[in-house]
Amino acid sequence: MSVKKHRYAAMASTVYFSYFMMGIGMSLLAQFKPQFASLWHSSISEVLSVVSAVGIGGIVSILITGPISDHFGRRVSAVIGHLLWAIYYIGLLYAPNFAVAYIIGILGGIANSS
């Protein structure tokens, strides 16, 4: 495999991995709505708002992640994205209320766009 094809394959697999992680997160929130509502002392509609926060984070992050990737490189941007995924998954479980969970949802959207 040539160097150019190897770089393309690595980047493509990173992008697909990011979408895979987002799909897992959306599936978990959708399947365990009552449990998350109980965990965050909120309603099921607020849990669904956290799902929409992931989309909002993705839209907002377009303005941020492009310049970061241009300045520091794609590798740094990917590492930041993976760290944000870890914060997202751990944060959803330990969020004390809906407001914190909503902010963590935005971070999940940023992770997906990184």
UniProtKB/TrEMBL annotation:
GO terms for molecular function: transmembrane transporter activity. SUPFAM superfamilies: MFS general substrate transporter. Residues 11-114 form the Major facilitator superfamily (MFS) profile domain. The chain crosses the membrane at residues 12-32, 44-65, 86-111. Keywords: Membrane, Transmembrane, Transmembrane helix, Transport. It is found in: Cell membrane. It is a multi-pass membrane protein. The keyword Glycoprotein does not apply. GO terms for cellular component: plasma membrane. InterPro entries: MFS, MFS_dom, MFS_trans_sf, MFS_Transporter, Sugar_transporter_CS. It holds the Pfam family MFS_1. Belongs to the major facilitator superfamily. This is Major facilitator superfamily (MFS) profile domain-containing protein. It comes from Lactobacillus delbrueckii subsp. bulgaricus.
